[in-house]
Amino acid sequence: MEGDPVLQLRVFSLNCWGIRYLSRRRQERVRLIGDSLCREPFDLVLLQEVWSEQDYGLLREKLGSCCPFSHYFRSRVIGSGLCVFSKFPILDTLLYQYSLNGYPYMLQHGDWFCGKSVGLGDNEQQQGVMATSSPLQLHAEYCRDKDTYLAHRLVQTWELAQFIRHTSHAADVVLLGGDLNTQPQDVGMRLLRGCTGLRDAFAEAKRFEGCKDGCTLIPDNCFTVKTELQPFPLGIRIDYILYKTESNFAVKCEELRTTTGTAPGQDIPYSDHEAVMATLHVRRQERPQGASAAEPLPADPVTEAPADAVTEALAEVRVGLQGARRRRYAAGRLAVLALLLLLLQAAAALGALAGWGAAQPFPALSCCLLAALALGILLGATCLHLLHVTEGRLLQAAEEEMRMALPLRRP
Amino acid sequence: MEGDPVLQLRVFSLNCWGIRYLSRRRQERVRLIGDSLCREPFDLVLLQEVWSEQDYGLLREKLGSCCPFSHYFRSRVIGSGLCVFSKFPILDTLLYQYSLNGYPYMLQHGDWFCGKSVGLGDNEQQQGVMATSSPLQLHAEYCRDKDTYLAHRLVQTWELAQFIRHTSHAADVVLLGGDLNTQPQDVGMRLLRGCTGLRDAFAEAKRFEGCKDGCTLIPDNCFTVKTELQPFPLGIRIDYILYKTESNFAVKCEELRTTTGTAPGQDIPYSDHEAVMATLHVRRQERPQGASAAEPLPADPVTEAPADAVTEALAEVRVGLQGARRRRYAAGRLAVLALLLLLLQAAAALGALAGWGAAQPFPALSCCLLAALALGILLGATCLHLLHVTEGRLLQAAEEEMRMALPLRRP
């Protein structure tokens, strides 16, 4: 069934932690990453959190000789932070921005502003093998015990799975690399892998070298927040290289490596995350005798998904939906109260002007300040209300889709 | 080369003009649409501007017997307004929201709030033919002579073309139906058709019946704004059914019809747009002897696109980019001025508290009002600045992609 190896693909993925003014020793690290990628060239480099276009420009300059083709995916205010560098021409691109991505008022988390997305670049590799390579990032998990964003991240995972199912038919090899902010045993990861048939390079690798258990956020890295990793003395694995094949190809992961904290010969690591590096062998497979040339889309979108993962995700999305409704009502109530206060003040002012009251009970200054405050609250609460209406709608849409997908799984 | 007809597909597309509280005789028209679709059943019904979920519910109820499968695409505050009804099961869905879609402060236009999108539903039709059907809508054209949103609509068209190229490989037949707010000879339409290879059912139809020149916004419709159609006495054609095939199938449009204003036996039309109805014949084609089973993606994404359309779109996007930059600077300047005013007032207030000034030059009430106003302007201008920063980024991204696509076309 199997022919000779037709293609060796070396893939590099790293969350670069390149937040301007916030990430420590950013420019130094970006230069280090560029130099390292020049020394050991890869066919595909999938980077995340490259928020600054100057950093992207610097990397493009450095990688000009080994990965001359590149694309920077722009979105929202700050950008998606995603970029892809390739040894072979990038023929076509597409950016898919998740519908839900945190809240604009959570400034300290900032996910909303950067428009977390999955990018997609089509490459023609050697010998006519088409590959789509996608750098991606999901919403961060700021607190594992009380993960406020779990529902948002699960909706992102669900949309990501839909996106992969719809776009993967255009290529022979589908490659994803990125920071999924999800551990291998988490419901999100089971959902994604189950719904798409994507395989985890770490689990499939013939040889592995790097941090124990393939961890990519480790206490030994001087940039990680040690307190966050306290429950995990070895660290956690949240960065992945995932792959699958379409048509008549088979992929095997020959080797997987991770960086291990401090960069060789330096006093700092490349990032607060560890890089993941995979060597994949793509082989052409003969089509079985009598098989049809046309390969229809699998009839059941969650054929491979454990119903448990969908059920679990569904429960979390429902919890999120309840929260969104609570916040929507709270914001709506606040807006109504502010409006009532404004109307009351307007009535009092009109009364004073018409001379109904004997004397104005409050000084004009306090009245004006109170009116300005009420107006501010009214505007703010209305915006918040609309935000949570939208959040509720999108969570409900995902909830319905998951619910619809479930009966197909039941025996 | 051609076998027997394997499938007849009857497709219906209509912009339903279903804006709650604003669209005239909305509920009556929705009932009319439902009744009409029950009398003459279609295999696929692609509707736009169904903003109210109650309307969708009513249609779902009415179409339960002829099109039992349906999906409502939710997005943003109001929703995408898109829904699809199908005679055959919908196996998988995906919603792609365009990155640019007007401005939130243009409340009278409201496009921003509804998150214009393209939906996608996978159907397995009879005899194993896979179809993806996409209802879609692009940003409205409010004034043809001074079309402020042309750049946004062209970026949407560009993203739509990318989306179709990436998702169309999953199906045998790709169907799009919707209100493109673009006339057939416009740059957007040439760009879309050229970049995707989509064919226009009106241009390809063997038989046609309906409004002259296939117009879908006609002066005879009592809901259209007559002044907007003054330069076009016959009306304009902005609603389309477009199609293409992948793999081993060929599609021909046997018949195309449009409604012609007032609904039969009623005093009102179904909507302010005319419905488009196509009968397509899908035939299985034999693969030529010696042809490879694997069909690679076309190497050049704009192989079929006239370079002229890309050049023209590029010029319009650049005009849009200049506008976005102007608006960004204006908002930024305003924010800085408001901040200076606030600082000045703070200094004056501190001075008065410290007893530096002999007497306060302004009454406290005026000072407070001015400070509140300055604060409001500062907040508003900062939001506007961020909005136009994002707009500029996204226009620049599209400009770069179009520019990159161009040299491939040049001899």
Automatic annotation (TrEMBL), chains A, B:
It holds the Pfam family Exo_endo_phos. GO terms for cellular component: membrane. GO terms for biological process: sphingolipid metabolic process. It is a multi-pass membrane protein. GO terms for molecular function: metal ion binding; sphingomyelin phosphodiesterase activity. The keyword Membrane applies. Belongs to the neutral sphingomyelinase family. This is sphingomyelin phosphodiesterase. It comes from Crypturellus undulatus.
